Amino acid sequence: MHQVLARKWRPKNFHEVIGQEHVIRALENALTQKRLHHAYLFTGTRGVGKTTIARILAKCFNCETGVTATPCGKCDACLEIDAGRFIDLIEVDAASRTKVEDTRDLLDNVQYLPAKARCKVYLIDEVHMLSGHSFNALLKTLEEPPAHVKFLLATTDPDRLPVTVLSRCLQFNLKALSAELIQKQLQYVLDQEHVSYETKALLPLALAANGSVRDALSLLDQAIAYGQGNIIITDVNALLGTVDTDKLFNLVTAIAENNADLLIHTVFELSELAVDFSSALDDLLTIFHRIALKQIIPNVDTSNWQHVEKILALSQKFSAAETQLYYQIGLIGKRDLPLAPNPRLGLEMVLLRMLAFRPAKTLPISLSDKPTNKTIAPEQVKSAVKTAQIEATAIATTVAATPIAAAATNTLPNTTANLDLLKQLNVSGPTQALLRHCAIKTIANDKVELILEANQAPLLNKKHIERLNIAFTEHFKKPITTEVTLAASAIETTATITARELEQKKADALNAINQDQKIQDILQKFDAVIIPETVTSD
Length: 538
Ligand SMILES: [Zn+2]
Prior knowledge:
Radius of gyration: 33 Å
Number of strands: 10
Structural class: alpha/beta
Low-confidence stretches: 360-403, 405-414
CATH architecture of the largest domain: 3-Layer(aba) Sandwich
CATH superfamily of the largest domain: P-loop containing nucleotide triphosphate hydrolases
Strand content: 5-15%
Bound molecules: zinc ion
CATH topology of the largest domain: Rossmann fold
Shape: flat
Number of domains: 5
Helix content: 40-55%
């Protein structure tokens, strides 16, 4: 008889449980030292082994060899628990049994001695789903539990448990399993089952299982059926509707290198594989998300990531702002995908838009570098670029208004007049330097509130405040107190304006160099390049 893999390979003892060493060790120690509690709570996302561990624990309590961390697996109690027909293990799925009477029925019987076992075990899954009344009934039992009863509670959502229940349980938090660990387990099962497979076909299955071994084994069952007993990557991708990650990275590389040919060719390849374009876009967003994480937090935990080296390499090809922009374009593209004439066309447009939104100064050059794309006439490119630039402004506004955006612009009330006021203020030396990094938040009757760029916080001290009080009092000709708070996001100050102007001057200088025919001739003659960092504006 065919048995589904998730059931067949469900761990029967602690030794077979994977990825929960911290919980297993604590349970084994307690059992060995006979320090038994009457209520245990297992928490964690679905499919990580909560009820599996609880059932093993039920065997530990009731194995006929005595209370043990290593139940024999052979006695009646062990065999019957494994088969799900042990009379003194009462399993309740609270998700389907929330009525108070049911729980009362259940708990009415608590006082009776076990039919034949050492102790009666109540396994209540999704215990947070019990109604308030049922909780009270449970709580009453937990307060004075009969010596022969053990409660094993499991939940995906411990936050919804009353603290009165939590405080009476020994709590164990199960971890979601890494894709690598799940992949290893799949490999182990396939080896034992003598099913042939491509190793690289297992990772997409493991990833799709989202940390759940049970889900991974169910997917494996489907993959075996789909591939008629042989597991290969193309089948798995087709089954999951997922995309070959190599192709996704080709897409991102095409964007990084402004390579429209590679982009269109890759989309064509994807369409040949009949992938789900919407999930391809999801995967693309995931890649940009990771690139952004790597850019902003260089030592981010990447232990659960695939292709870390590729992400790292790409994170150096984009600026942080570009990454944010491409993510945003992808996100908006995902919203619009159902409106496109067909999904492939929709994805293509999203990707082309990413190319079109590259910084304007490189755009026309790069596009005219690609004359091979015969379907686009130069005039069309020019008008597309113009439209793209107008649209880019619209999108940039969206970016600035959304919390994902790194380069959020200043939304605080602030005008040139305010900054001028700060410049005119009669202060000198370090206080003047400090003011260059400040903006005015409010000016009330007798109070001026300033905001300071957060990275300048170390400069702030009492002396400056005293000097500012004096200066503002002089300026407004009435007593003023000054308050300085740190800015939560980027603000517009004299310092940031100056820095930006300097950048602009440098860009102008570089532009002038690029357009100077004499310099270009020299560069060509000596096969030289300009190093932008060395260009100064004066
Ligand atoms: Zn046994």
